Amino acid sequence: MKLMTKLASIDDLLAGRCGQVAPGDVFAFNGISTVDAFIQDATDSGISHVGIVIRQTDQAPLSLLEATSKGITATPLAEVLEGYQPDHTCFYLPLAPASRALVVPATLTDYYLSNALDKYNYDGVVEAGLYDLDHPFFDRFLTHFHENSPVARIARWWERLINEAHRIWAEIFGETPAYRRLFCSQLVSEVLQAMKVVQVPPPARLVVPVEVCWFDIYAGAYQLNGERLMADPFRWGDAPARLSVDPATEPPLP
Prior knowledge:
This protein is α+β, with helices and mostly antiparallel strands.
């Protein structure tokens, strides 16, 4: 199924003109920071980050569940979109009705409460870049990060221990919750898989942000900021775009 990308706005979204946002819906982001540029480059894609909508209590406003450098967090949706807007292009991917019917809001809440403030899984990003996509990770890494930066030091540490990878991953992704550290696309994939909205072939930790946008579960996509639709934001390596522009909503060329 090919989905259409439409131009809307954050105000349209919050006013309900993009449909009613609900738990389980996904937001994706294209960014301009060094970290965003690195992830987009390493995955040959236009998406560097994803999050999933939850409601922490029955009476609470909708929030976005994310894995960021602050850990596993849930932030009110209006607040998080306002924060991303200056340096990110934001996309809203509502679940299709059949997928939305499978969502159990309490499962989302429980997932957040059991993982709140867990550390960001930098190692998982390295793993995805090295193994799942077969990219020259460290060449690209050094293009984006100074060799003495904390992230570069993490990468060198990981490289030194690569021969013990099986043991390391057994600890990080083992059954003991204290060792579970997530990165954004792993978090979204795990939550959707727990509710049987998607079936991700193991290991789910290797799902990268743009791959979440390729799940065949959405009713469409809305670009929420920017003067015109981005060209092919959901590109992924050599694969053809799954989400195409809606000609009826594409602004005219200048």
